[in-house]
């Protein structure tokens, strides 16, 4: 009896180790992604997210290779060059728990994602959005009036465009209450 219990415990431990050692396979469609979210112990940043500008749904899920990093995999995309399961980028944790370094591939060449770009992603207070700010901005301004006599420098007009709408991702699944609710609209009971 004791021997059977030891054998059973060993078999369970071996099964658990082999399951933990199995590499992560990204889901092939939205149903598989939802099932993964339903059965995994998700951190608040993990789940299904949507890029409204590009009509792409992605899965953000912890990386097997790097601690504190979350891989971004395509789940659905209107663009035919983005296939389900492709690694689109990653989010890396920073010292601020609501800020992440976002690395995304920006081009597809012959079916391979290329041209990585880096940005700062900020998790919103209500935990339903990630706003993205590009970090690699460079501007050079030449003012020809500096070459003219001081009379011409009396009047200066600068017109700056208003701030654009924030870019980023919107959390699709799981919802904040586990009931598919959103804070972005009314909840009908």
Key phrases:
8 strands
Helix and strand pattern: HHEEEEEEEE
Report Rg. Answer: 24 Å
The largest beta-sheet arranges its strands as: 1-2-3-4-5-6-7-8
**Distance between termini?**
55 Å
**Structural class per helix/strand content?**
alpha+beta
Stretches where pLDDT is under 50 for at least 5 consecutive residues are none
Average pLDDT works out at 77
Number of helices: 2
Beta-strand residue fraction = 25-35%
Anisotropy-based shape: globular
> How much helicity do the residues have?
10-25%
What does the largest sheet look like?
A: 8 strands, antiparallel, barrel
Total number of strands: 8
Question: Helices, strands, pairings?
Answer:
Blueprint (H helix, E strand, L loop, with lengths): L1 H20 L8 H10 L7 E5 L4 E7 L6 E9 L9 E7 L5 E11 L2 E12 L5 E6 L32 E7 L16
Antiparallel strand pairs: 1-2, 1-8, 2-3, 3-4, 4-5, 5-6, 6-7, 7-8
